[in-house]
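Narrative of accomplishments. A recurring question from our advisory board has been how the design workflow behaves on a single, concrete structure rather than in aggregate. To address it, we present the structure tokens for one chain from the evaluation set, followed by the sequence designed for it. No filtering or post-editing was applied between the two.
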């Protein structure tokens, strides 16, 4: 299967399946973090966010909360389309 065919298949999935796929991709990318080349602006953004976190570690959104919010948003979008 070609990369384009995979992409087209992925885009036809329902939002919750795409979200699950995104989570799995994020996990796999995190494992390969050292092998992924970053653009200078991406590295600067990461360092800036790390500095903000070190300044105030209480001002964060937990990953689980972020994913839950994405799921809620996807559910609302589906309801609007119905």
């Amino acid at each position: 299967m070609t990369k384009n065919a995979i992409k087209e298949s992925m885009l036809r999935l329902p939002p919750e399946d795409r979200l699950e796929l995104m989570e799995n991709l994020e996990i796999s990318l995190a494992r390969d973090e050292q092998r992924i080349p970053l653009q200078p602006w991406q590295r600067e953004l990461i360092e800036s966010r790390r500095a903000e976190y070190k300044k105030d570690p209480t001002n964060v959104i937990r990953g689980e909360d972020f994913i839950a919010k994405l799921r809620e948003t996807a559910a609302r979008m589906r309801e609007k389309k119905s």
